[in-house]
Amino acid sequence: MIDESRNLDRRRFLQQGLVGAAAASLAAPLTRGQDRPSQLIRIGVIGVGPRGQWHVRNLLTNHPDVTVVAICDIQEDHLDAAVQIVKEMRGTTPAGYAKGEYDYRNLCQRDDLDAVLIATPVYWLGRMTVDALRAGKHAALEVAGPQTEEECWGMVREKQKSGKHVMFLENCCYGNENMMIYNMINHGVFGEPYYAEGSYVHDCRSLFFDPGGKITWRGELQRDRYGSTYPQHGLGSNCKWLQINDGDRLESCQTMMASGGHESHLRTVTQFGPGSEQARIQFKQGDFVTSLISTAKGRMIRLDYSICCTRPYSRYYLLQGTKGCWDSRSGVFLEDSSPGKSGAEGAWEPLAKYEPTYQHPYWRENGAAARRTGGHGGIDYHCISDFVKMLREDQEPWIDVFDAATWSSIIFCSKLSLDRGGARVDMPDFTDGKWKDPSWRKGRMQIS
Predict the structure, then answer these.
(1) Rg (CA), the chain
(2) Edge-to-edge strand order for the sheet containing 425-426?
(3) Which among 170, 138, 158, 169 is positioned nearest to 391, based on CA atoms?
């Protein structure tokens, strides 16, 4: 929930100071390393459904040096709602783009933009990122990111060619526990990590159709595609923990899928009736998908995925190392400090016991503000703050274009594995071998 009293205070401040200086600052380019509190970071937003509108609020609530200059959405009601948010919070009116599917390219060509944030349905994310880079803009894109190998390579090559920054807005990596485990790994608490589990098991069947019964992009994803089609919420943290692209890389995957869209079909029949047009839809996606991913250094990741299972939201994780284990469903066991020995004598402990020592600085220093204004329990606060930091300091982000391509490659690799009866599929190396140097991206994320 947004703290409205905080918004009102911020609005008064902006009206008195920052907005008064906005006109003079809009034409000023973003300069590397320059501290410019009187100048605004100018952002265009493409896709302002509920998620995109939330990003607009988050940016304007928590970052006084950010302005939203332009907004694009093919649905004019979404566009109007987002424009109104900016007018209410900042007293300015962003330019609107709603003239067809490719009007976003006109937004990208504007001279008064530093960056573009893309929060459209998944089919557009990769190509829009490429177009933003070609227009000379930094970019941030939502999950599930690029959908094909061609889109992945296109993003990587265009980033390298343009020299612009790309941040992947995978917010689950910014969870309090997820970042704490990352911190503990970097302090050697778990020894050598060699196995991880991640998941995204979230019953989204109520989102497959809009109130009028028209299928949504989530429903289309379930109808037309199969495999691990929305993998990054489960996979991203695993990759950061196992130093994927920073000394190791994803090498191959094998994917298995439960029955076809049985649960999706049952829910649709219940919702619309057995004789309805919706009930005739054949959902290709299975009820549950599991992928086993191997790395170049012989590590392994298990990734579970379902958006149609009859169960409460259950995004679970596990990290196994040579000196201990954390299982989000059970607790933590550390060889050097937990009660008993591993095996029958060992005892799980709550991770919170180690929070005073190992909580990540993001949560220790800004946890209260994150929970109050950030969304998704605070993870959006830290994710968007890193996006703004990328622009403000002109630096590469923690979750960059190489991560976006690598984590998204499970989408098409898992499908290919299923097409081959669960056979092993080799995964691309989007770093072109840079992963072999564990220090090539060092220093992008704080360690306490």
Answers:
(1) 22
(2) 331-334, 324-327, 318-321, 193-201, 300-306, 289-295, 250-257, 425-426
(3) 138
Separation in Å, CA 269 to CA 264, 276, 284: 9, 8, 16
Contacts of 155 (CB under 8 A, 6+ apart): 126, 129, 130, 133, 146, 166, 401, 404, 405
Q: What is the pLDDT of residues 395-419, one digit of tens each?
A: 999 999 999 999 999 999 999 999 9
Cα 20 to the chain's mean position, in Å? 34
Distance, CA of 77 to CA of 74 (rounded, Å)? 9
- According to DSSP H, which parts of 279-425 are helical? 355-358, 361-373, 379-393, 401-419
Mean pLDDT of 373-401: 95
Q: Is the dihedral of CA 152, 376, 66, 81 positive or negative?
A: positive
CA distance 81 to 71: 10
φ/ψ (deg, to 5) at 340 = 75, 180
- For residue 440, the SS3 value is coil
422: left (phi over 0), alpha (psi -120 to 50) or beta: left
Query: 60: closest CA among 84, 76, 79?
Result: 84
309 pLDDT band (50/70/90 cuts)? very high
94 SS3 class? coil
Domains along the sequence of the chain with CATH: 4-170 (3.40.50.720), 173-360+400-436 (3.30.360.10)
pTM of the model: 0.89
Count of other CB atoms within 10 angstroms of residue 424: 15
Give the angle subtended at the CA of 61 by the CAs of 57 and 64, to the nearest 5°: 125
The pLDDT tens digits of the residues spanning 169-201 come to 999 999 999 999 999 999 999 999 999 999 999
Distance between CA 14 and CA 392 in Å, rounded? 19
Residue with tokens 């990290």: 319
Query: Checking phi first, is residue 322 left (phi over 0); if not, alpha (psi -120 to 50) or beta?
Result: alpha
